[in-house]
Design a protein that fits this description.
seven-stranded mixed β-sheet; 7 strands
Length: 256
């Protein structure tokens, strides 16, 4: 294996996305080559029951830039994303979902700010999800802002770029949909600066969404309460960066 550290890792958790994987991988390769950066694609099959494993095995055999990892059983979105972020080697790490709801070409818009900010987070403008998911997201965002003072516009938007030192500095414990919230809350508590950028969003063309399932919501609430209990005794730590972190200004978009 090439020991050169890539400039960019493209990470995609996937569960039963066989219909979307060929287009996803084709687009990711084209975008990566167009950026003129050394890149890798890290995709985590979270115990899929369709042809995902077969498709990924063939794709990674054809192109060594594609690195596929597999969970023997479905462990949850957060667990799949955590595995992908841990396996990523890039100095910059981007992640998105495998459901083709985002335009990967817009990675360039995030990368334009990656030298000045530790995290560049997309927000869906407008969001193309069914109304019930938008209502849940609105309520969830309000709860997170109240508990953690995290004024991020679209917490769960799966279109983010991280500098390597962010991922090295914070633990990721969530195995479910809470993972985006956990990463941003921990990163801000560690003093890392966040920039928010509008990105395009499209309706899912195939496959099935699970984010609004009662079990998913219940697990997220449990993990939220656990993180709140962990951080609460220390009080507001947004102005006390960990070693290697940078104190955030009141504006999340403040540059370094």
């Amino acid at each position: 294996m090439n020991e050169t550290i890539p400039a960019l890792s493209l990470v995609f958790p996937a569960f039963n996305e066989a219909e979307n994987l060929p287009t996803l991988l084709e687009n990711a390769i084209l975008i990566g080559e167009g950026l003129a950066l050394d890149f890798e694609i890290v995709i985590v099959d979270d115990g899929s029951q369709d042809r995902s494993a077969e498709l990924l095995a063939a794709s990674s055999a054809r192109d060594p830039r594609i690195r596929a990892f597999h969970h023997a059983a479905n462990r949850g979105y957060g667990a799949a994303l955590r595995s992908g972020l841990r396996e990523a080697h890039g100095n910059l790490v981007f992640f998105s979902d495998a459901d083709l709801q985002f335009d990967l070409a817009e990675i360039q818009r995030l990368l334009e700010h990656a030298q000045d900010f530790d995290i560049v987070a997309g927000f869906r403008a407008p969001r193309r999800d069914p109304w019930i998911r938008r209502v849940i997201a609105w309520a969830w965002g309000g709860l997170v802002r109240m508990l953690f003072d995290l004024p991020v516009r679209d917490i769960d938007c799966a279109f983010k770029v991280f500098r390597r030192d962010v991922l090295d500095a914070i633990p990721i414990e969530s195995i479910g949909a809470f993972v985006n919230t956990e990463i941003l809350v921990r990163a801000r508590a560690a003093g890392f600066a966040i920039k928010q950028i509008p990105v395009s969003h499209h309706r899912r063309r195939s496959g099935r969404q699970s984010g609004a399932h009662p079990r998913v919501i219940a697990r997220a609430l449990i993990e939220l309460s656990q993180l709140y209990s962990e951080l609460q005794p220390a009080g507001d730590r947004s102005d006390s960066p960990r070693p290697g972190g940078r104190a955030s200004s009141p504006e999340l978009g403040a540059s370094r």
